[in-house]
Automatic annotation (TrEMBL):
Coiled-coil positions: none
Keyword Cell inner membrane in record: no
InterPro entries assigned: ATP-NAD_kinase_N (IPR017438), DGK (IPR037607), Diacylglycerol_kin_accessory (IPR000756), Diacylglycerol_kinase_cat_dom (IPR001206), NAD/diacylglycerol_kinase_sf (IPR016064)
GO MF, one annotated term: ATP binding
Family the UniProt entry places it in: Belongs to the eukaryotic diacylglycerol kinase family.
EC primary class: transferase
Kinase keyword on record: yes
PANTHER family recorded: DIACYLGLYCEROL KINASE (PTHR11255), EYE-SPECIFIC DIACYLGLYCEROL KINASE (PTHR11255:SF80)
Annotated protein name in UniProt: Diacylglycerol kinase
């Protein structure tokens, strides 16, 4: 990891909002043809007994027993650790569903046991059992396993959701004091790939992908590590029984409404809490409704999701059916904006008190943005001039500054102009660290969402 105070880390946050045509041509993979396959394999291939041990530990879900068996088997003294050990997670359901062919190609370039299909091996299993095996072998004095654990890097072949899943699982290493946390790179297979764009890995899967994969693995060896803020979401709501949760939220116990926030409505006696983490952006309102509907449509009819272009067309068509562009007059006025049902409080820098933010009456979507990229490479926050920043009390936005940008979208037409860079979104606030609270109110139910800053690291692809 790169220290916060280093110049390299500071430069990491100044990332282009959208991949240029030149970057797209570079990503075609032609330069990867010149990379020698055998030389690449020697640099990233983990010794066989360690690969097999990781596999056995995950299958048996017992890293201690697997380590004991391989320690008794011997053979490790003759092995040298890889110069840059890399493991890859492949999501066969991402983007254009290149996963199966990509998995075969990766297995040609590295050990078969170093490529994990996410439909078979879940990231938490790798963290608990695979890395647990390496740590156990290191405790036995195995230097090869120790160096492998320390130098290990992870590549994720998937979209932003897949990358977030991996990062969230790796974050448990910090909680359990099992550092170092392996840095993560991305092979973009998703639709938007905003996280991948922000760290220089590209916005789409390359056309000449078989050669490009060699280039991705080669860059993973030497790419520098940069910081990324992550934000924890805590949802507190009345207990309504069984709730259908997205995979990114998990139920937790012991959370309550914060006493330092003035909540005028009566608080229910029985509460339910959920936690999750996001890295790109956190959206409330029509934007989130469209994304949620598209997600369910894609799962219900997977044959429609044949690639990023078709996904974007379906997404755009679906947006037109949700009242995002036109809300009928006979419907409730509350559907035209969030002001009637949402209050937002933030904490600013060096301030311990919550401050309520005035909600614009015409805003129908609120987005808390962590990256420079949103909606497939757009920058709705914009590059603001120093005078404007000073007037608003804002600071320049970076991905590792502990500050999150909050903006609003009025309706589909406004969002469309924002996404083609004709205008910027409606700037609402910037918040710091333990910073944002959304309070939803109605006649009978209340729901509170807290957004809390954490920190993570990725490594950036070199040009």
């Amino acid at each position: 990891m790169v220290d916060d105070s280093s110049a390299v880390a500071a430069e990491s946050t100044r990332v282009a909002a959208r991949s240029s045509l030149v970057d797209s041509l570079r990503a075609c993979g032609i330069s990867g043809i010149r990379i020698d396959k055998q030389a690449l394999k020697r640099r990233i291939l983990i010794p066989e007994y360690i690969r097999l041990g990781i596999r056995d530990a995950i299958l048996s879900k017992d890293p201690d027993a697997a380590a004991e068996r391989h320690r008794r088997g011997g053979g490790e003294e003759k092995c040298e650790p890889a110069e840059a050990p890399v493991v890859v997670f492949v999501n066969s359901k991402s983007g254009g569903r290149h996963g199966p062919a990509l998995k075969e190609r990766l297995q040609e370039l590295m050990g078969e046991e170093q490529v994990f299909d996410l439909s078979l091996v879940k990231p938490p299993e790798f963290v608990e059992f695979g890395l647990g095996f390496l740590e156990k072998m290191a405790s036995f004095g195995d230097q090869c396993a120790k160096v492998t654990r320390e130098k290990l890097r992870i590549m994720v072949a998937g979209g932003d959701g897949t990358a977030g899943w991996i990062l969230g699982s790796l974050a448990e290493l910090c909680v359990q004091h099992r550092e170092p946390v392996p840095p993560t790179g991305i092979i973009p297979l998703g639709t938007g790939n905003d996280l991948s764009r922000s760290f220089g890995w590209g916005g789409s899967f390359p056309f000449a992908w078989r050669a490009a994969i060699k280039k991705y693995l080669s860059k993973a060896i030497s790419a520098p590590v940069y910081r990324l803020d992550s934000w924890q979401v805590v949802v507190t709501m009345p207990d309504v029984g069984k709730v259908e949760l997205p995979y990114c939220l998990q139920p937790v116990k012991g959370q309550t409404f914060d006493q330092d926030l003035d909540v005028k409505e009566k608080i229910p006696q029985t509460l339910t809490c959920y936690e999750g983490v996001f890295y790109n952006y956190f959206s409330i309102g029509m934007d989130a409704q469209v994304a949620y509907g598209f997600h369910h449509l894609r799962n219900k009819r997977p044959y429609l999701a044949q690639g990023p272009i078709s996904n974007k067309l379906i997404y755009s068509t679906y947006s037109c059916t949700q009242g995002w562009f036109c809300t009928p007059c006979m419907k409730s006025p509350s559907l035209r904006g969030l002001k009637n049902i949402l209050r937002m409080h933030i904490k600013k820098a060096n301030c311990s008190e919550w401050e309520q933010v005035q909600m614009p009456s015409d805003v129908r979507a609120i987005v808390a943005l962590n990256l420079h990229n949103y909606g497939s490479g757009r920058n709705p926050w914009g590059k603001l001039k120093p005078k404007y920043l000073e007037k608003k009390g804002f600071v320049e936005a970076h991905v590792d500054d502990g500050v999150i940008e909050i903006f609003g979208l009025k309706q589909g037409w406004h969002a469309s102009f924002v996404l083609v860079d004709l205008i910027t979104a409606k700037h609402i606030a910037q918040a710091f660290h333990y910073s944002v609270r959304y309070h939803f109110k109605s006649t009978s139910k209340q729901l509170v969402m807290d957004v809390v800053r954490q920190r993570f690291s990725l490594f950036k692809k070199l040009k």
